[in-house]
Design brief:
Strand content: 35-45%
CATH topology: OB fold (Dihydrolipoamide Acetyltransferase, E2P)
Helix content: 10-25%
Number of strands: 9
Strand order of the largest sheet: 1-2-3-9-8-5
Radius of gyration: 13 Å
Largest sheet: 6 strands, antiparallel
CATH architecture: Beta Barrel
Shape: globular
Amino acid sequence: MNVPDELRYNKSHEWVRLEGDTATIGISDHAQEELTDVVFVELPEVGRAVDAGDPTAVVESVKAASDIYSPVAGEVVEVNEAVEADPSLVNSDPYGQGWIYKLKVKDVSQVEGMMDADAYRGMIG
């Protein structure tokens, strides 16, 4: 199971990579494995304001459709159109090319309050 140490995680299996006040968000390797083959990704609208816990995107697999929840509050500033065109990127590269959207974070301390890699490994282990 791939759980990069530099990321933060939440209980609904989203990850965050914080660069300055911009958070890149995707779903964990564990989540994509549970979903199996991702066949569709519905991206949020750029400019949309979201609160922590808001459903912001949808990932559909051959097995199920799952909401992607915003781990932190902020404004959607970019979406990954590559995953819309090729949803399998979520499976093949969940922490790289398979990211889903980016947020301008309202309060970076929200990210610091998320689980670190060790805590996430403990939750899924």
